[in-house]
Amino acid sequence: MRRKLRAMRKAMRKVSSAIKTIFGMPDYDRYLAHWYETHGAPGIFPMTEREYYMYALTERFEKGGVTRCC
Amino acid sequence: MKKWLLSLLIWGGIAALGAVGFGMIALWQGESVNSFWLLTAAFCTYAVAYRFYSKFIARKIMSLDDNRATPAEVNNDGKDFVPTNKWVLFGHHFAAIAGAGPLVGPTLAAQMGYLPGTIWIIVGVVIGGAVQDFIILFGSMRRNGKSLGQIAKEEIGPVGGALALIGIIAIMIILIAVLAMVVVNALAESPWATFTIFMTLPIAILMGLYMRYIRPGQVLEGSIIGLALLFFSLWLGQIVAASPTWGPAFTFSKVQLAWMIIVYGFIASVLPVWLLLAPRDYLSSFLKVGTIAVLAVGIVLTLPPLQMPALTKFIDGTGPVFAGNLFPFLFITIACGAVSGFHSLVSSGTTPKMIAKESHAPLIGYGGMLMESGVAVMAMIAACVLTPGVYFAINSPAAAIGVDAVQVATTITGWGYTVTPDQLTTLANDIQEKTILSRTGGAPSLAIGMATIFSGVLGGKALMAFWYHFAILFEAVFILTTIDAGTRVGRFMVQDMLGNVIPKMKEVNWLPGNLIGSGIITIGWGYFLLQGVMDPLGGIYTLWPLFGIANQMLAAIAFTVGTTIIFKMGKAAYSWITLVPMAWLTTATLTAGWQKLFHPDPKIGFLSHAEAFQKALDAGALPKGVKTVEAAQKMIFNDQIDAVVCAIFMVITIGIILDGARVWINILRGKHYPLQESPYIKSKGNVFDGKGHHVA
C-alpha cells in the first residue's frame, strides 16, 4: 500500500513537473534536485521556495526575451 | 512482408489520401464540402512532410549529431538550461508559438473563400514556416541558445544585426496595436465580455499574492483557483450584462476601451511581474491550450460542412474585410499558421536552451510549426461553418455594409450572399450580444463559429452564448497578456538602445528608465490603436496588412540568417531550401508594401487614400464616413505615417537581404567566413541525470 502510494506520488510529481515546463512555470523541485547534485556542500544553502519563485519570474519576464508569439 | 515495402505502402497510402483530400476541397461541386476533407488534406500533407522533408533537411544541412552536447547539457543550471524530455519540450514550444495569430489570420482570409487560404496554410507551412522555425532553432541550438538578433549580428554583420533589431522593435509596436484593436472590437458594446475581462485583473492579482505570500511558488494551486474564479466570473457576466444598472456600467465605446487599454498597458508593463503578468500569463496559457483542444474535439466530433464557397468573388481584391488582390495580400493576411517571422524570436528563445539531444530538433522545430498550422486550418473551418452572408455581416466595416440589420442584409444579399435581417438578429440574440454587425477583427467571428461548433457537441443553443463568451474571454486574456509582455520586451530594447547614449538607461531596475522606455513603446502602439479606432473602416482593414508586412519582413530576416548559416556551413548546394521560401515571401511582402504605398485605388494605397481625402476637402466636401474636417485632416496624417512605416519595413527587408547576399556571393567567390558555432563538446550520453558538465 505504502509502496503504491509512493509510486503514485512520484507519478503525480512527474506530471506536475511536465505541466510546469510546458507553460514555463518555475519548478522548485527541479531546481533543488539540480542544486543538491552539483552545488550541495556543508554550510551553504539553496534558495528558499519563495526566493526561487521570485528569481525564476524575473529570469523569465524581466530579461527582455520574447517568450511568446502573436 | 519486407519492412521497406510496408513503409512504402503506408506512406504511399497517406500521400494518396492527402491527394484525395486536396482533390475534394478543390473540385467539389456540390452544396458544401465537408471539413473532413480539409483536415485530411492538411494532416496527410503534414505527415509526409514531417517524415521526409524535415529528415531531408536534418540530414543534408544540419548533420544532427547526438554525440554533440546541446546547450542544455553543457550549461545545465537547473533553471534556464535544462535538458528536457522531447515531448514535454514539444508542448513547451507549441504553447509558446501558438496564440491569437493563427486564429485571426485565416478568419480574415476566409473572405476569398476557404480554398486559397487553406492551400497557403498547408503549402506555406511545409515549405516555409516549419523550415524557418526548424533552421533558426538549429542555429540557436548550435550557438548556445543565442537570440535571432545576436545570430544576425555575428553571422551577417553589424549592419544586418542593427536592421534586425530595429525591425523587431517595429513589429512589436504594430503587433500590439493590431491585437489591441482585436480586443477593442470584441469588447465594444458588450457588457458580458467586458465584465469578464475586467474580472481577470483582480483574479490575477489575487493569484499573484497567493503564489508569493500565502503558498510561495505553488503555481499549479494558484492557477486552479484562478481558473475556477474565472469560470465563475464568466457565469456572473451573463447576470451582470442583463442587469439594468450594471449592464450599462460595463458598456463602453471603442474609443473608451482603446484609452483604457493604453493606460492599462503602460501601468501593467511597469508593475512587478509577480503581481499581474505572471499569474495572468498562466491563466491565458491554460485557456489557450484548453480552447484549442476543445475546438479540435468539436470539429472532429461534428465534422461540420463548410458553408463558404471554395472561392468568393472577392479574389478580385474588392473584398470588405481587407483590400487588395489574392496576390500578394492573401500571403500577408495569413502569416501565423503558414509562415510567421515572429516564431524566429521564440525558436531562438527558451526552446534551444532546453533541448536535450540534437535529434529532437525536427520534432520540436518542424513538428511544432506543423501543429500550429493545424490550428490555423481549424480556425479556417470555424470561420467557414458560418453562412457567407453572416460571415460578411460580422467582418465587414460599417462603412461598407451600413449599420442596421435590414440595410446590412440588403447590401450583402446584393453581393450574392443571401442573408435575412432576421437571421442576423436571431444570431445576436443566441449569443446574447446587442449586435453581430461589423464586429471586425476576427475574434467575434471565430467565437461565433466556435460557439456554433461547440453547441453542436454540448449544450445545444442554450449554451451557445456561454461558448461565445468563453472564446472571447480566451482571446482577450491572451491578447492582454501579449500587450503587457510585448510592451515589456519593447521597453528593454528601447532602454538598451538609449543606454548607448545615456548609460544609466541600461539599468533594468531604474524606475525612471522603465517609465521612459515603457512610455515610448506605449505611445507607439497607442497611436496606431487610436488611429484604428477612429478609422471609419474599422482599423483592422488598415492595420492587419501592416502587421502582415511586418511579420513577413521578420520571416525574410530569419530566412536570410538561415541561408547565411547554410552558406557558411559549406552547404550552398542546398541553400534553395531557405532561398525558395525567402524569394516567395520577399516578393509577396515587397509587392504588398509597394501597393500599400502607391496603389492608385484609395482602398489599397495609403498615399492615394490621403490624396482622395485631400481632394474631397479641397472641394469643400467631407469624405464618406468622416464627420469633421479635423478628423479628415488627421486621417490624412495617419495615412502618411502608415506610408512611412510601410516604407521602413521595405527598406529593412531589402537592406538585410542585400547584406546577407554580400556574404553569400563572397563565399561563392571563394572567400572564407568562419561559422560562429559554439565549439564541439562531446555529449556524456544520458543527459537526464541532472549533473551535466556545468561549465557555466
Automatic annotation (TrEMBL), chain A:
Q: Which domain of life is it from?
A: Bacteria
Instruction: Provide an example Pfam family for this protein.
Output: Sel_put
State the protein's name.
Answer: Cytosolic protein
Provenance organism: Brevibacillus formosus
Classification from the root reads:
Bacteria, Bacillati, Bacillota, Bacilli, Bacillales
Automatic annotation (TrEMBL), chain B:
- Species: Brevibacillus porteri
Note the topology in the membrane.
Multi-pass membrane protein
Q: Which Pfam families match?
A: CstA
Report the residue ranges that make up the CstA N-terminal domain in this protein: 34-592
Question: What is the protein's major site of localization?
Answer: membrane
Instruction: Write out the transmembrane intervals.
Output: 34-53, 87-105, 117-138, 159-186, 192-211, 223-245, 257-277, 289-306, 326-346, 367-394, 466-487, 508-530, 542-567, 574-594, 641-665
Q: Which family does the similarity line name?
A: Belongs to the peptide transporter carbon starvation (CstA) (TC 2.A.114) family.
Per its record, how is this protein called by name?
A: Carbon starvation protein A
Q: Is the keyword Transmembrane helix in the record? A: yes
Q: Which InterPro entries match?
A: CstA (IPR051605), CstA_N (IPR003706)
Give the record's keywords alphabetically. Answer: Cell membrane, Membrane, Transmembrane, Transmembrane helix, Transport
Q: Where in the cell is it found?
A: Cell membrane
